[in-house]
C-alpha cells in the first residue's frame, strides 16, 4: 500500500481500533510485559520515540511503568494519534508526551532518544530497501547504543508451516470477534498489502537499517518482536 492508503485505512479504523483488538489483550500484554525487561536498563528519565504509535498501546504501558520517561509519538494517521492523545490525557501522562502527526522524516530534530518502539509498522513497507531506510531513520534518532524494540508479522509465506499458522491465526481472530468478512479482508491484505517475510529476513532488514544483531524476544502466532541496539557509525 502507498503511504496515503495506509494513512486512510488507519484514519478510518481509529475510533473502533481498540475495541476491535481488545480480545487480543493476552498477546499484547505478553509483548509489553517482556518489553519492560528489554528496556529495564534505560535511564530513569529516558526519552522514548514511539514510531507508528497508533492509539498508544505500548506508549501507555511504558508511561504507567516508568513514571519519569517522556515520549514522542509519531504517526501519519491523525485520527489514531488523536485517540492516543485522549488516552494520555485520561490516564494523566499527556504532559510527558509530544505528538507528531506525520512521518519520522518530518519530525523536528531534537536531542537523541534513548530508545524507540516500532510495533506492527515496518510490515507495511513493501519494498525492502525502503524498509531498511525506515529503520535507518529510527537509528539516526537514537543515541549511540540506543535501543530499538520492534514487532512485525513474519513467516515463510507459501510454506506449509505458514499456511497452518495463518489458519490458526485467523481462527484466533474469529474467536476474538472479528467478523467473517473482516477475516477475508485480512487474508487478502496479508497476501498483497503486508510484507510478511521470514523472521530471519526481517532481522536482517533491521540490521541493514543500522542495528546490531537483533534478538527475537517474542513470538505469538504471526507476531514476532526483536530488540537491538543502534550500531556504531562504522558498523562495528
Ligand atoms: C497496526 S498499527 C499499530 C499501532 C501500535 N504500534 C500498536 O501496536 O498497537 C500501525 C500504525 O503505524 C502507523 N504507520 C504506518 N506506516 C507508518 C510509517 N511509515 N511511519 C510511522 N507510522 C506508520 C499507522 O498509521 C498505524 O497507526
TrEMBL record:
GO terms for molecular function: methyltransferase activity. It comes from the Bacteria. The keyword Disulfide bond does not apply. Residues 48-146 form the Methyltransferase domain. Keywords: Methyltransferase, Transferase. One of its GO terms (biological process) is methylation. This is SAM-dependent methyltransferase. It comes from Pseudoxanthomonas broegbernensis.
Amino acid at each position: 500500500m502507498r503511504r496515503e492508503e495506509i494513512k486512510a485505512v488507519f484514519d478510518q479504523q481509529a475510533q473502533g481500533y481498540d475495541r476491535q483488538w481488545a480480545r487480543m489483550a493476552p498477546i499484547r500484554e505478553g509483548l509489553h510485559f517482556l518489553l519492560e525487561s528489554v528496556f529495564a536498563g534505560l535511564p530513569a528519565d529516558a526519552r522514548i520515540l514511539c514510531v507508528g504509535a497508533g492509539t498508544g498501546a505500548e506508549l501507555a504501558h511504558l508511561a504507567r511503568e516508568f513514571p519519569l520517561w517522556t515520549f514522542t509519538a509519531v504517526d501519519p494517521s491523525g485520527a489514531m494519534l488523536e485517540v492516543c492523545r485522549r488516552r494520555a490525557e485520561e490516564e494523566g501522562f499527556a504532559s510527558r508526551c509530544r505528538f507528531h502527526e506525520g512521518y519520522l522524516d518530518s519530525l523536528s530534530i531534537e536531542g537523541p532518544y534513548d530508545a524507540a518502539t516500532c510495533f506492527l509498522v515496518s510490515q507495511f513497507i513493501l519494498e525492502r530497501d525502503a524498509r531498511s531506510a525506515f529503520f535507518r531513520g529510527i537509528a539516526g534518532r537514537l543515541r549511540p547504543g540506543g535501543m530499538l524494540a520492534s514487532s512485525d508479522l513474519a513467516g515463510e509465506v507459501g510454506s506449509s508451516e505458514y499456511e497452518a499458522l495463518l489458519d490458526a491465526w485467523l481462527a484466533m481472530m474469529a474467536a476474538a470477534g472479528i467478523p467473517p468478512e473482516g477475516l477475508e479482508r485480512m487474508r487478502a491484505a496479508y497476501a498483497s498489502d503486508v510484507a510478511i517475510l521470514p523472521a530471519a529476513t526481517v532481522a536482517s532488514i533491521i540490521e541493514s537499517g543500522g542495528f546490531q544483531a537483533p534478538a527475537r524476544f517474542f513470538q505469538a502466532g504471526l507476531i514476532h518482536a526483536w530488540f537491538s541496539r543502534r550500531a556504531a557509525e562504522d558498523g562495528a
